[in-house]
Amino acid sequence: MILELDCGNSFIKWRIIAGAKQVVAAFGVAGSDAELVATLELHGPKLRACRLVSVRSDAETLALVEVLQKHFDIACHMARSAPELAGVRNGYENYQSLGLDRWLALVGAFSLGRGACLVLDLGTAVTADLVSSNGVHLGGYICPGMPLLRNQLCTHTRRIRYDKAAAQQALRSLEPGHSTAEAVERGCALMLQGFVDAQLLMARERLGDFVVFLTGGDSALVRERLPEARVVPDLVFVGLAIACPLP
User: Fold this and answer.
1) Predicted local distance difference test score (pLDDT) of residue 22
2) CATH architecture designation of domain 2-78
3) Domains 2-78 and 91-145+187-235 share a fold
4) Catalytic residue among 33, 58, 73, 101
5) Has 12 been labeled as part of a binding site?
6) Of these four, 60, 63, 192, 202, which has the most CB atoms within 10 Å of its CB?
7) In 10 A of CB 151, how many CB atoms?
């Protein structure tokens, strides 16, 4: 079995794949290295290798690799930046400055779609990337996602205070809000929808026929606006398998 890791700044998304068909045997999210190790202890004896992508510092990533090697005695293969991969050409002036998770997501999308695509990732930050039919990354955009928008309002406006339950309840509708929670949550959601609408317009102008790929924890907030989109929650892992092939 192969362990795959997507190491973000706040959480580690993990999954274990097994067999020739790469079936997902287990998956989850860990809040720390220690939590990840404790969870993986159930599968440790069966792990034969690990591949990972990390946006953490080199020191933090190395510390995690050392922990995994110590506990499970497995080799860890890390994805690296590249000017080109699997037919996709990195569109940044300095290819190494494009976030690795973002790079792998658009490589994975191009591999699945086999043509022009718009990749939308709605997480803590929201990213959009355009890839032409011949694999040229045309660049992209980054803006705050729901967690960042919400936190900024709560941090800088004293009277905005509500809990997670109120936030979830508020997003059941996008009608004008009748409470602070409703006004904030629905306002932020509409901002995201406006961002997505702008990306669609831009993609139509630049790409012609294209496939929309949707990923990230807040994808549901725009899903109804994109009925034709391919929802791929593990899009980064698709690209990771391409970047770090294992026998």
Assistant:
1) 82
2) 2-Layer Sandwich (3.30)
3) yes
4) 101
5) yes
6) 192
7) 12
CB 131 within 8 A of CB 93: no
Return the residue matching tokens 């629905």. 186
CATH class of 91-145+187-235: alpha beta
Give the start-to-end residue ranges of the domains of the chain: 2-78, 91-145+187-235
13 is annotated as contributing to ligand binding: yes
Q: Which residues neighbour 94 within 8 Å (Cβ) at sequence distance 6 or greater?
A: none
* CA 198 to centroid of chain Cα atoms: 20
Of 4-13, 19-28, 153-162, where does mean pLDDT reach its minimum?
153-162
Residue 101 annotated to the active site: yes
pLDDT, tens digit, 9 for 90 and up, residues 24-64: 999 999 999 999 999 998 876 688 899 999 999 999 999 99
206 is in an annotated binding site: no
